[in-house]
Automatic annotation (TrEMBL):
Ranges where the record places region Disordered: 1-21, 76-105
Coiled coil stretches, renumbered: 35-69
Protein name: Bublin coiled coil protein
Biased composition (Low complexity): 1-15
Chain intervals with Basic and acidic residues compositional bias: 96-105
Pfam families assigned: UPF0184 (PF03670)
This protein's record includes keyword Lipoprotein: no
The keyword Coiled coil belongs to this UniProt entry's keyword annotation: yes
PANTHER family: BUBLIN COILED-COIL PROTEIN (PTHR34344:SF1), UPF0184 PROTEIN C9ORF16 (PTHR34344)
Top-level taxon of origin: Eukaryota
Gene: bbln
């Protein structure tokens, strides 16, 4: 006899769920409860991820501002040294600025 799709040697009853294989209401409720719990955990994880992402952006912006202020201070002190050179050598700060800007000596 051919199967449900016309395949030879496959009985028609193969793959059909028998009454004893059906889930009980309690099993569906347990599965739904587990899925709800997983959904709650995933929502909490998403909230934490969003919070960390926001804090990371704040930290990056703060770091960027601090770097710009530091660079402005170095440029200000460099221009003061050029106008009124002190006993020290200002080449160290110039090398640092060039390295920070991606230039190499």
């Amino acid at each position: 006899m051919s199967g449900p799709n016309g395949d030879p040697n496959i009985p028609i009853d193969d793959g059909i769920i028998n009454d004893e294989d059906e889930f009980e209401d309690e099993e569906y409720e347990a599965i739904n409860s587990m899925l709800d719990q997983i959904n709650t955990y995933l929502d909490d994880l998403e909230d934490r991820n969003d919070s960390l992402n926001g804090k990371l952006h704040e930290l990056l912006e703060s770091n960027r501002q601090a770097r710009l202020e530091f660079r402005a201070q170095l440029l200000g002190s460099q221009s003061q040294e050029e106008h009124c050179p002190a006993d020290g050598d200002s080449s160290t700060s110039k090398e640092y600025l060039n390295k920070d800007n991606g230039d190499s000596k």
